[in-house]
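Hi Q.,

Before the meeting this afternoon, I wanted you to have the adenosine-5'-diphosphate prediction in hand. No need to reply - just skim if you have a minute. The sequence and ligand are here:
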Amino acid sequence: CIRDRITTIVNQRNQLETVFSSMVEAVIAVDPEERIISINDATAQLFGIERQGTQGRLVQEAIRNIELQQQIERILSTGKPFEDEIVLEDNGSGDTYLHTNVVPMYGGNAEMLGALVVLNDVTRLRKLETVRSEFVANVSHELRTPITSIRGYVETLLDGALDEREDAEKFLHIVLRQSEQLEEIIDDLLALSRIEREAKDSQIDLEQMPLKSILEDAAEICRPKAEEIGVEIVVDCPDYLELDLNSTLFEQALVNLLHNGITYSEAGQEVVLTAAMMETGGKPKVRISVKDSGIGITREHLPRLFERFYRSDRARSRKEGGTGLGLAIVKHIVQAHGGTVEVESAVGKGSTFHIILNS
Ligand code: ADP
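Predicted structure with the ligand bound:
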């Protein structure tokens, strides 16, 4: 009967309405006069407007956005579907990039009923692209530095320096050192991408083990370098602490931190590696710290220190054969263990790096 059919139609309408309003994509339907037929909640949220009362209003009045308006004008005059982009200016957390799909709507008798704009927020994707292209630029730059130097010295050798035995030997040592530097950058990059990939696929095996032995092994690995500089490594860790760790990776993270602590210290100073339970009130946590009394880091550098290739003292890092990747590796390893890293530092007083893990 007619009542059942009406109920069915109303139900269908409600279903469609629910689908429309729960879509993640922002959708705008307009008539040929650029008046809004309908917008969904996502659209209202995106443009910071109220959905109520938009129906029947001109698009450019309800949603003040020039690019959107131009795209609607274009579809209504050409009737040809297209894709484009809209950038919403910084609203405190950076620009928002929207990908738009603009299509005409046709009625049964082929007349144009208006147009449909579907907007997708592609900001995250955009940011990833930027990060990636910056990364490629950084890698190229970092690789070029040693290559330029190697090439320069080899050319000098070929130009005659080869005949001066003493010069030749000096230059060849530089070439050797620079090629080692190249190798180190590549090894670190490969290590980083491997850790990243394995962490993403949850392939990193964690095994419960006593923390103290790992701390001591890491210290042992770094002792020759410490002795060379005249720095002492001190380890302080209670015997009872046990954590779920990937010992190879975690040892690598500690070695990187110790290595930095030693590098940026002076003869006679100590680098102290400690571990202790933390008083957090919440979940029990363990804090592993590497503390030095070396040159320290100025405040402005601290927030970016764990980024790939970021160096607070470029000249010194290079001189020490640093790759600028050590701390990025530390961060990735710690994240793969579900933990966090922090740094405190004061210029001239020293730095402390903390790894915080759930116990
Ligand atoms: P690098 O290979 O250059 O040491 P890292 O990623 O390990 O790269 O460290 C990044 C930068 O942070 C270093 O270049 C250095 O400027 C600074 N840094 C790291 N650890 C310390 C520290 N213990 N004391 C002072 N500066 C440090």
